[in-house]
């Protein structure tokens, strides 16, 4: 070969590398076994679409195929993390609707941005209509702010300066919006006490509150249910996992953020005494936790065994001491996933707890309550992140 | 299918390269026949099959419309040559072809627009057919009509082989977003073209530059603009910054597509003309239109403005011609009145520069001329963006401080603060920095040149991986120029 030709070939080594790279992605995409489920994204992945002339001619096949390609792309999660790392190198602090901050312990923490609430009025109306239909029950509404509210001070300066929806404003809005319903106040302030003691009220990688956060929530809620606060110390909680990466983290897949640990509260007297019945699947256990989830990605689902339309918890040894002269022993909770870690803290003080998830429970909850005359307390618990777009709540009455 | 999608990049591109280069070369050897034309014919066939697949992927039905449109002009070209000495027949042939092509375009792209405009007259309410615009129809219609006109003008010989003609019209590199390549430009290369490694690499790098500009810059700018647009109580500075972001996004998006098209063409052995020459660094609107979407302005100049008489029949006729050209240039960009207004808006400034203050402008310092141009262009793209006049009007109340908004507000700080590196790159690369660097590169010694070339290549490999990561990581990948 001529010297010039050899030189041209050598000069273009990066071109061959790039072509090989493209080809390698193509080959791996074709030969690698396809996954059905993404643990990281917690959803089913697209399958190879069904082929038919009709689906091709209206373009359905093509767009489904492109979803299939991106869902099944080799090294999908790693590539997402590459792009996030590069953005962070470029100084970005808000990526895919996730804000990076440093928390009270100077650790990296991920916050979901708060989107402008569009359905505040609707939520208030729904709750009022619902409580109006109940014959007699003490209805308590608890709206829990999310981490972005808790870390308002730690947000990037420029981010704070812009006009944006604040969870604080939404919480204030609901004061005085409810009739015949007590509205739990001061949660934000109670949670912020946790910062002083360096307790994480929220996960760093997930949109939920931690067991400690839920405990603060319980302290705040107790007076509205007329139950005395059962004080807990650190020893009452046990750590069950130290490698939890939550849903917020899944939006960035950034291993620069260290994993969270998960705690539970478990009264030793529960074992063999309480019954937890998942009405939809008919499973019966004696613990509000399903520790099998600790081996999966989706560890938060350990609380109350993930999502169920209706859960029935019985504790015959419950302490029925009340701060008023009532002897309420039965509670209905209508809730989103924030309640899953709070419910265990209420088990000791109610003989019966019914937990409704209106996203899955399709009947009328108000009629159900009226049919069950023993129900004395009703708690509606939502976090501000999902309250606004939870379609289930519309169907509770 | 768009170039900046995983589907194109990973599957289509890889399959095409394998078929076009090694398989094409192999088939060229196996099939008997004259070696040179045979090798090209094999590659043309491969290119045609891939192009039809490429188009049918996005338009499984309208692909037949493209076949029809190209068949009309192919036959028309043959007829124009057959009746070489009968001007009357030739004219009829040309008019027939134009009527068919423009009617297809008119119905597929503008039916709703025309009927909707008639409906604005009180008392009339015609039903709208609601036809979805076939991808790229504006581009290939202009290519195919330019061919007929050129044959009619005897500027180019008619193509005798339909498949070769179809290869030209359907070539996936420029089929859906330009540039508008004239047949005369590629007629030779369709029959005989050179393929070699240095040219391939050059084309590949050019393609990558386009890919990076699209994925790493335009998409990010788009996200910024989307974020800013949604904020309530936009300040004056915010509103203008928003329009600037959209302008930059549009420029990077569209010119990146041309980069990729030119690069792909070069890899295959075709040489297309440049379509953008740093339009956002222009010193006047006249200058801007020599640099922005050159193949389109050239088309309107050669096939409309000059045939209308250009500037040869007095000022009044010239003004009329300019009005027609800019009305249609606007309309070409989309079937909506805001595009027409955008075209006329540019037309007005071009007329003013030509007849009123052009000479004066030239005496001003370059910086002033540049800022004047940028303001007009950026504001124009505001008009371009909002297809509902009421929305644009609403936006303008912020841009001109009528809404009682602040002059400068903190809302822009986060958009800027969170995206400084991208913004800096986007603004610097508006100007011809890269050609300057290239000049420097060419003045280096051989050894140094090779090192820089190699290092640049590895950097490109890194950016390619990053672009793939970016495409995987985001579903945000709309191509703006899809309304054309």
Protein model, in words:
The complex is a heterodimer of chains A (397) and B (484). Chain A contains 15 helices and 15 strands. Chain A is an alpha/beta fold and 397 residues long. In chain A, a hairpin with a 2-residue loop joins strand 3 and strand 4. The termini of chain A are far apart. Chain A folds into two domains: 73 residues, no CATH class; 301 residues, no CATH class. In chain A, the strands form four sheets. Chain A has an eight-stranded mixed beta sheet with strand order 7-6-15-13-14-12-10-11. A three-stranded antiparallel beta sheet of chain A has the order 3-4-5, covered by helices on one side. Helix content of chain A is 34%, strand content 17%. The radius of gyration of chain A is 25 Å and the shape is elongated. In chain A, helix 10 runs antiparallel to helix 11. With 484 residues, chain B is mainly alpha-helical. Chain B has two domains: 188 residues, no CATH class; 285 residues, no CATH class. Chain B is 73% helix and 0% strand. Chain B has 19 helices and no strands. In chain B, helix 3 runs parallel beside helix 5, helix 8 crosses helix 19 and helix 9 packs across helix 14. Chain B is globular, with a radius of gyration of 24 Å. The C terminus of chain B is likely disordered.
In short:
The complex is a heterodimer of chains A (397) and B (484). By secondary structure, chain A is α/β, with parallel strands linked by helices.
- Secondary-structure-based class of chain A equals alpha/beta
Percent helix of chain A, as a range, is 25-40%
Number of contiguous helices of chain B: 19
In spatial order, strands of the major sheet of chain A run 7-6-15-13-14-12-10-11
Low-pLDDT runs of chain A: none
- Topology order of chain A in helix (H) and strand (E) letters: HHEEHHHEEEHEHHHEHHEHEEEEEHEHEH
Q: Helix content range of the residues of chain B, please?
A: over 70%
Provide the domain count of chain A.
2
Q: What distance lies between the first and last C-alpha atoms of chain A, to the nearest angstrom?
A: 84 Å
How many whole angstroms does the radius of gyration of chain B measure? Answer: 24 Å
Strand fraction band of chain A? 15-25%
Number of strands of chain B: 0
């Amino acid at each position: 070969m001529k010297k010039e030709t050899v030189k041209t070939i050598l000069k273009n080594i990066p071109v061959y590398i790039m072509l090989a790279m493209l080809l390698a992605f193509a080959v791996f995409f074709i030969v690698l076994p396809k996954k059905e489920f993404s643990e990281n994204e917690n959803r089913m992945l697209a399958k190879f679409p069904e082929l038919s002339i009709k689906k091709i001619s209206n373009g359905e096949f093509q767009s489904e195929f492109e979803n299939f390609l991106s869902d099944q792309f080799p090294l999908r999660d790693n590539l997402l993390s590459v792009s996030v790392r590069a953005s962070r190198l470029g100084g970005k602090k808000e990526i895919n609707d996730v804000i990076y901050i440093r928390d009270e312990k100077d650790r990296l923490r991920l916050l979901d941005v708060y989107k402008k609430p569009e359905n505040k009025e609707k939520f208030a109306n729904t709750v009022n209509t619902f409580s109006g239909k109940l014959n007699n029950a003490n209805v308590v509404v608890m709206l829990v702010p999310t981490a972005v509210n808790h870390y308002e001070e730690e947000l990037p300066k420029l981010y704070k300066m812009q006009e944006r929806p604040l969870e604080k404003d939404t919480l204030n809005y609901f004061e005085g919006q409810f009739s015949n319903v007590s509205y739990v106040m001061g949660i934000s302030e109670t949670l912020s006490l946790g910062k002083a003691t360096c307790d994480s009220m929220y996960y760093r990688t997930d949109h939920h509150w931690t067991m400690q956060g839920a405990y603060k929530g319980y302290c705040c809620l107790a007076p509205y249910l007329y139950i005395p606060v059962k004080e807990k110390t650190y020893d009452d909680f046990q750590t069950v996992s130290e490698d939890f990466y939550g849903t917020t983290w899944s939006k960035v897949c950034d291993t620069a953020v260290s994993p969270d640990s998960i705690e539970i509260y478990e009264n030793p007297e529960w074992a063999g005494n309480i019954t937890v019945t998942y009405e939809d699947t008919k499973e019966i256990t004696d613990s509000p936790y399903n520790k099998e989830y600790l081996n999966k990605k989706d560890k938060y689902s350990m609380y109350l065994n993930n999502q169920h339309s209706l859960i029935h918890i019985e504790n015959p040894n419950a302490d029925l001491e009340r701060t008023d002269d009532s002897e309420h022993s039965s509670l209905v909770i209508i809730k989103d996933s924030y309640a899953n870690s709070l419910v265990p803290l209420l088990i000791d003080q109610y003989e019966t707890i019914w937990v409704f998830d209106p996203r899955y429970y399709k009947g009328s909850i108000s009629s159900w309550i009226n049919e069950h005359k023993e129900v004395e307390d009703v708690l509606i618990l939502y976090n501000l992140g999902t309250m606004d777009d939870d379609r289930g709540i519309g169907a509770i009455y | 299918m768009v170039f900046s999608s995983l589907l194109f990049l990973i599957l289509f591109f890889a399959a095409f390269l394998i078929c076009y280069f090694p398989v094409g070369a192999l088939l060229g050897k196996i099939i008997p026949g004259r070696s040179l034309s045979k090798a090209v014919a094999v590659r043309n066939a491969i290119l045609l099959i891939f192009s039809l697949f490429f188009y049918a992927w996005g338009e499984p039905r309208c692909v037949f419309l493209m076949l029809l449109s190209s068949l009309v002009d192919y036959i028309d070209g043959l007829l124009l040559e057959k009746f070489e000495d009968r001007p009357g027949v030739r004219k009829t042939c040309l008019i027939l072809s134009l009527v068919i092509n423009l009617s297809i375009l008119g119905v597929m792209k503008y039916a709703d627009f025309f009927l909707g405009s008639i409906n604005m007259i009180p008392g009339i309410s015609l039903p709208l057919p609601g036809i979805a615009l076939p991808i790229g129809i504006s581009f290939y219609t202009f290519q195919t009509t330019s061919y007929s006109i050129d044959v009619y003008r005897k500027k180019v010989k008619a193509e005798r082989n339909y498949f070769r003609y179809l290869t030209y019209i359907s070539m996936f590199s420029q089929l859906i977003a330009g540039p508008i390549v004239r047949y005369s430009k590629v007629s030779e290369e369709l029959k005989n073209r050179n393929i070699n490694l240095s040219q391939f690499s050059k084309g590949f790098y050019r393609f990558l530059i386009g890919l990076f500009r699209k994925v790493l810059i335009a998409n990010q700018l788009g996200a910024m603009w989307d974020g800013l647009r949604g904020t309530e109580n936009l300040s004056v500075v915010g509103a203008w910054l928003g329009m600037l972001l959209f302008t930059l996004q549009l420029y990077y998006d569209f010119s990146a597509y041309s980069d990729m098209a030119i690069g792909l063409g070069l890899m295959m052995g075709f040489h297309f003309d440049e379509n953008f020459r740093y339009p956002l660094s222009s010193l006047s609107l006249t200058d801007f239109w020599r640099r922005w979407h050159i193949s389109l302005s050239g088309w309107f100049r050669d096939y409309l403005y000059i045939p209308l008489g250009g500037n040869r029949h007095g000022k009044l006729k010239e003004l009329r011609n300019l009005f027609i050209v800019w009305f249609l240039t606007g309309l070409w960009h989309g079937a909506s009145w805001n595009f027409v207004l955008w075209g006329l808006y540019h037309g007005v400034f071009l007329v003013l520069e030509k007849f009123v203050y052009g000479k004066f402008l030239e005496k001003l310092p370059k910086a002033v001329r540049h800022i004047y141009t940028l303001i007009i262009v950026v504001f124009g793209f505001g008009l371009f963006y909002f297809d509902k006049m009421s929305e644009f009007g609403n936006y303008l109340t912020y841009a001109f401080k009528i809404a009682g908004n602040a002059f400068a507000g903190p809302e822009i700080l986060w958009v800027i603060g969170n995206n400084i590196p991208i913004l800096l790159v986007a603004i610097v690369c508006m100007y011809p920095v890269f050609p300057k660097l290239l000049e420097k590169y060419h003045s280096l010694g051989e050894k140094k040149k090779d090192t820089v070339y190699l290092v640049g290549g590895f950097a490109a490999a890194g950016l390619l991986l990053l672009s793939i990561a970016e495409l995987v990581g985001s579903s945000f990948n709309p191509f703006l120029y899809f309304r054309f």
